[in-house]
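User: Can you recover a sequence for this backbone? Please restate the input before giving your answer.

Assistant: Of course. Working from this structure:
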């Protein structure tokens, strides 16, 4: 690369000394740094498959050398392995979130960054989007696997993510010039859980802090508030671009069809959950605009971008994805994976090498009609249900799975749970063994949230059974509507 990777390699090159040299962290934001990343992303977009693989391999070898020199976790994991140049990716051990979180400082190349400082940072909502220790972005992920994640990114990685978002996701198609709208004529709204250091809201707030003149045109709205209040805020703001989980977008589409929500959108962006073809068509009809799917994570913000044929193309020059079966063996194209292993080639502060992401991904066979040589994929994301409880006078009130999960994770501090709706006025909570001591707090948090939504007379009971995973896939659906269509509740 002519950009970020070469600069990072110069700063972070592997030391031949017995004691590795201290790592100087990249700046949190630097215009020249961003320009180098943008130039690299632009040039990489037009590479053929062989050139893409060569660029990724060079970055992987550099990352392995760096991680073994500067990151205690990989010094232990890779202690008995040959030099990086003699290995293929499949030779390396798989990294699970539980191991990463068991000793967070050992996963970091950041000198002097300790767990108490990280915990204090993410406990303060006023610091969402701000840098930790002047250099690092810290994002958290849900505990959908039973373990919440904490991920630390440096300025070089942020520059790459931003360039990928702007130059690929924003509508760059195969051809000589970029297409699509630009920020000067847009009003962007993200509807999500905004009360924590999640990647989406943290990125929005980082941009608002870095570019104050942009702040009036880039905003995030909380999905935890009552729906009428959210609708009122969006009508007042009048976004032209809206980003939301598919379940959130479906709920807003109902409001748009009913005339209570009055948005004129240029595009609707969905991610974080499965987006079925029928749902995409219904959303496009309700809002009268193109619906685009995104695929990203707290581990790597911009994993894949949609081409004009609505196929997701992996940014394979910066992130490696391996679809594997339940025994860790690679699956062929056209076969859904049991899980996916991610290697982040951009971030040196907390290297992620063959990290178990937990998503099921299918690589699409054959070339894409758009002409891109980057692999196209389909993603089976979260598949939790929207719940529908009886409100005033029996009128149904819909509850979003994202909001319910956020309440349990942030307010009750539980991550291994399953919430079932068994009736129109009845919720049942299942907790993992380690979470049982938080049962009272979890039920109390749910009741308080229901009260904020003015839902009265809803029972919240604790089930003695633990969360039940899907028998075939082994995946955990954390919010489940178990009400029979003829059930009265």
């Amino acid at each position: 690369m002519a950009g970020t990777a070469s600069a990072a390699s110069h700063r972070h090159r592997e030391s031949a000394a017995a004691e590795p040299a201290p790592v100087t962290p990249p700046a949190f934001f630097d215009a020249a740094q961003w320009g180098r990343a943008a130039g690299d992303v632009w040039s990489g977009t037009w590479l053929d498959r062989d050139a893409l693989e060569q660029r990724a391999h060079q970055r992987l070898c550099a990352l392995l050398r760096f991680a073994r020199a500067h990151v205690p976790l990989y010094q232990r994991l890779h202690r008995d392995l040959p030099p990086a140049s003699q290995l293929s990716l499949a030779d390396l051990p798989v990294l699970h979130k539980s191991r990463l979180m068991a000793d967070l400082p050992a996963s970091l190349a950041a000198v002097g960054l300790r767990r108490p400082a990280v915990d204090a940072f993410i406990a303060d909502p006023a610091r969402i989007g701000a840098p930790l220790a002047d250099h690092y972005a810290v994002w958290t992920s849900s505990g959908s696997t039973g373990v919440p994640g904490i991920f630390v990114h440096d300025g070089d990685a942020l520059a790459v993510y931003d360039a990928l978002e702007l130059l690929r996701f924003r509508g760059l198609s195969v051809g000589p010039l970029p297409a699509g709208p630009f920020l000067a004529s847009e009003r962007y709204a993200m509807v999500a859980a905004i009360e924590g250091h999640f990647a989406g809201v943290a990125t929005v707030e980082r941009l608002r802090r870095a570019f104050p003149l942009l702040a009036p045109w880039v905003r995030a709205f909380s999905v935890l508030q009552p729906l009428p209040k959210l609708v009122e805020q969006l009508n007042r703001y009048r976004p032209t671009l809206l980003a939301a989980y598919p379940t959130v977008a479906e709920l807003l589409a109902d409001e748009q069809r009913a005339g209570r929500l009055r948005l004129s959108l240029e595009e609707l962006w969905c991610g974080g959950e499965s987006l079925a073809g029928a749902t995409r068509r219904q959303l496009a009809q309700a809002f009268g605009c193109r619906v685009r799917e995104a695929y990203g994570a707290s581990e790597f913000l911009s994993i894949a971008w949609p081409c004009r044929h609505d196929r997701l193309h992996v940014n394979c020059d910066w992130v490696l994805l391996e679809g594997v079966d339940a025994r860790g063996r690679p699956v062929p194209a056209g076969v859904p994976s049991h899980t996916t292993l991610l290697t982040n080639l951009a971030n040196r502060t907390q290297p992620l090498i063959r990290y178990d992401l937990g998503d099921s991904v299918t690589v699409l066979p054959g070339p894409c009609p758009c002409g891109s040589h980057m692999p196209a994929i389909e993603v089976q994301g979260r598949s939790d249900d929207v719940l529908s409880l009886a409100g005033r006078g029996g009128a149904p009130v819909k509850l979003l799975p994202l909001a319910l999960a956020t309440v349990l994770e942030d307010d009750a501090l539980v991550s291994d749970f399953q919430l079932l709706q068994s009736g129109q006025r009845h919720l049942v909570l299942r907790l993992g063994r380690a979470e049982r001591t938080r049962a009272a707090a979890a039920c109390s948090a749910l009741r308080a949230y229901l009260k904020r939504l003015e839902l009265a007379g809803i029972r919240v009971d604790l089930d003695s059974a633990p969360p039940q995973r899907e028998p075939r896939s082994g995946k955990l659906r954390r919010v489940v509507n178990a009400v029979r269509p003829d059930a009265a509740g």
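That completes the design. Residues 1-19, 172-182 have pLDDT under 50 and may be disordered.
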